[in-house]
Amino acid sequence: MRRVLRVLGSAVLAALAGGSGLLAQVAPEGRGHAEPPIEASFAYSLVRSNAGPGNCGCFFMNGGSSEVAFHAYRDVSAVVDVTGEHAGAINSTGEELSLLTFTAGPRISYPIRGPYFTRYIPFAQALLGTAHGFGSSFPDSAGTVKPSANSLAFLVGGGLDARMTRRLDFRIFQVDYGYTALPNNAGNQENLLRVSTGIVLRFRQRR
Length: 207
What we know:
- This protein has a single domain (2-203), classed as Porin.
- The protein has one helix and nine strands.
- It has one helix at residues 2-26, and strands at 38-49, 59-73, 76-87, 97-109, 112-113, 119-139, 145-163, 168-180, 190-203.
């Protein structure tokens, strides 16, 4: 679990550094110019997964997720998502599982005004990337069992943020359907349901 958290934190810092540099390069000239905001979210995530299609064997994983969103145009942002999850035991097998996913893609937001001057921001997104499973058993087609494996991953979903202050949002909820194709000797497909809640920090670059 500590390894999951270390990788998650390193990936988030790298994304923030890279995004800040990119915005600085494309910024128009002008003293005091305010750049489009960068948003970084930090959330607790609960994931429900199955071992293979038609054979539920469902189990839960706990962990965290972080997203960095770079404003692109109007209500469209580019999002980088890093999620780390861990299960102490997969059903009755006694096997552990750690899962890291790295995905990116577009997000569409629609800010609306709510009561008491609170601003609610629903959003939807579709992300594509890779998954890395480790600390478990991954049987391949040749019958070899490996301790780790990689596969395609995607996440499709959305959520609702509430504006608390100029720099802080509360992510009331986020729900995503996810898919991975890690070797499991039962179709090599996993369907995931991720539910998250946390905070969103808003940064603004100035020159």
